[in-house]
Specification:
The structure holds 2 protein chains of 2 kinds. By secondary structure, chain A is mainly α. Chain A has helices at about 1-20, 30-40, 45-55, 60-105, 110-135, 140-145, 155-170, 175-190. The longest helix of chain A is centred in the middle third of the chain and has 43 residues, at about 60-105. Helix content of chain B is about 85%, strand content about 0%. The chains are: A mainly alpha, B mainly alpha. Chains A and B meet through helix 1, helix 3, helix 4, helix 5 and helix 7 of A and helix 1, helix 2, helix 3, helix 4 and helix 5 of B.
Chain lengths: ~190, ~180
């Protein structure tokens, strides 16, 4: 019985995280920290370990974290119920928004709003691309040590990034999955990262 | 039923090869959802991302729900979303159960060094594709530049940018017509 209650609590707590964290997977972090403090299920060191694992595995980070916490707390049933709790609020909200959008699809004001909003959406994605690039291509520690901006760039990463970019721009049929698999192999061969 | 299975499998494939969150998923969505399956247009993808940044939950998950709902209604939304989460749940459960120091293995770190560099290039190519559809005149070019710069140098919530840009769109287009 207490195990059933534990599963229910797990589901409920991740449901709340899903309901209140807006944005990407990292937005769930502050909620996880307070969840750990309230329940004692995991501590700050566990969280940094979870983030490292979530970042080293495929899939949305929020889902990875919910699965890991769920498994740690309640085994396999927990690793299923944690992520389901996390995604349940979004599913409901997005389905409601989809219905509303379909109703107002013909409205010219909705289309006017999307005209401005799409440019902003791509602007946000460009900003996110910049922050990903900073982490992947630039080594802040080397820069801080040497003070030389150009030495801060990780040469292997910059070259691989440039090659992949030219390849996807030239060969429209090239699948992103093929690029990722190839890059993982190249990373291992040249001991990158 | 066949269509639901296709939704599940397509999103499972995307979820299984997305490294680095919702933005990293974009190149995969463009290839699978827009170019191969015709389940959504580039414009719709941008709308989903804009809405996904302003609503609770993970952007990747929200986008899956949008596409699934559009194809097969409520059940489609649920199936696509579960498909997206499926590979993560399996992989993480296995790692949590069996490998205590997975992220410390040198081969894993090297592979991710390579993947991270490739993901930057893939996202950049996605941004270029989307710009062709959304940055179509001077006002949208100004909105794009302003949001890209402000989102980088400030900590303002994406919600604010999306709402302001939407209002600007209505004012510009609505003002012109009347």
């Amino acid at each position: 019985m207490s195990y059933a209650l534990l599963l229910l609590e797990l589901f409920g707590r991740f449901f709340l995280v899903g309901l209140f964290s807006i944005g990407g997977g990292l937005a769930t972090l502050p909620f996880l920290t307070s969840m750990g403090e309230t329940t004692g299920w995991f501590n700050a060191a566990d969280i940094s370990n979870m983030v490292a694992i979530s970042e080293s595995t495929p899939g949305p980070m929020g889902i990875n974290m919910a699965t890991y916490v769920g498994y740690t707390v309640a085994g396999v049933p927990g690793s299923i119920l944690g992520p389901i709790g996390l995604i349940a609020p979004s599913i409901v909200i997005i389905i409601i928004i989809s219905r509303v959008l379909m109703k107002f699809r013909e409205s010219k004001y909705v289309n006017y709003a999307f005209y401005g909003l799409r440019a902003a959406s791509v602007g946000l994605i460009a900003a996110a691309c910049y922050s990903v690039a900073k982490i992947a291509l630039f080594n802040g520690e080397v820069f801080a040590e040497t003070g030389n901006f150009f030495l801060g760039f990780d040469l292997k990463s910059v070259i691989l990034c440039a090659i992949v970019f030219v390849a996807v721009m030239c060969f429209k049929k090239l699948h992103p999955i093929a690029c990722i698999v190839a890059a993982a192999v190249v990373g291992i061969i040249f001991q990158m990262g | 039923m066949k269509q639901l299975l296709e939704l599940f499998l397509t999103f499972a494939k995307i979820g299984g090869f997305t490294f680095g969150g919702g933005i990293a998923m974009l190149p995969m969505l463009q290839k699978e959802i827009v170019e191969k399956k015709n389940w959504a247009t580039q414009e719709e993808l941008m709308d989903y991302y804009a809405i996904g940044q302003c609503t609770p939950g993970i952007i990747a998950i929200n986008t899956a729900t949008f596409v699934g709902y559009k194809q097969k209604g409520t059940i489609g939304g649920i199936v696509a979303t579960l498909g997206m989460a499926f590979p993560s749940v399996v992989i993480i459960t296995i790692i949590a159960a069996l490998v205590s120091n997975f992220q410390d293995l040198p081969a894993v770190q090297w592979a991710f060094g390579g993947i991270r560099a490739a993901v930057v290039a893939l996202i950049l190519s996605s941004v270029i594709k989307l710009m062709k559809k959304s940055v179509i005149d001077i006002p949208t070019a100004l909105i794009f530049i302003a949001v890209a710069v402000l989102a980088t140098v400030t900590n303002v919530s994406p919600v604010v940018f999306v709402l302001i840009a939407g209002v600007i769109g209505i004012l510009l287009k609505g003002g012109k017509k009347s």
